[in-house]
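ok so for the tutorial part 2 we go from a plain amino acid sequence to predicted C-alpha cells. step 1 is just haveing the sequence, like this:
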Amino acid sequence: MSARRWIPLLLAASLAGQTGAVRAQTEAKGGNPSPPQRPPQAPPPLPRSQMQPRGTVYIMDHAPDFELDGSNGRSVKLSSLRGRKVLLVFQPYKENLAQMRRYLPMLDRSAITLVGVCGDKQSALINLAKRDTIGFLMLADVTGDVSMMYGLLDNATRTVQPGMFLLDQAGVVRFMALGPVTSSSELMSVAASALPEP
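step 2 — the prediction. this is what the C-alpha cells look like for a chain of 198 residues:
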C-alpha cells in the first residue's frame, strides 16, 4: 500500500483514539459523556424580498426611463413624454390614483401633465378610466419593477408605495416626495416653485 493511501487511515485512527481516550477519562471520573458538539450553523438566508435592491433617484437626475401598459390601451414609454413637464405619481392601487384627478385643473394651469403608476393590471385601469372619466394617463406596474427602480416598492408586501416625482421638459427630476399628497396647497407650491421657467 502506498504512503499516500496510509495518510488518511492514520488520521482516522488517531482521531478515533483521541475520542476513545476522552470517553474513558469522562467515565473514570464518574460522569456521563457529554454529547458531541454540533458545529455552529450559518444564519438562515434573508427572504428573497429583503435581498432585492431598492432603486434610488435623486433631484437633478434624469428620471429612469421605463415602458408600461397604459389606461389608454397602449404601451407608454416615459421618455415619449419629453418636452412636457410631468408629475409622476406612484400609488398602490387605481382607486388611490383616481383621487388625483381633483388636482388636474391646478396642474393644467401650470402646464404639468399628470401620470399615475400603480400595481393594478392594464385592463382594470382601462375600465376605470372609461367608467369614471379619470382624465389622466395611468400606468400598470404589475411586477413592481418600475416602482422598485424609483425606490417605491415595499419588498415585504410587494406593494407600490406613495410618492411623486416632478420632471422638467428634459426629464430631469426637479422635486420628489415620498408619501401621499396631503393637500392641494402642497401640490400647488411644488408646481409653482420646483420647475424653472423655460
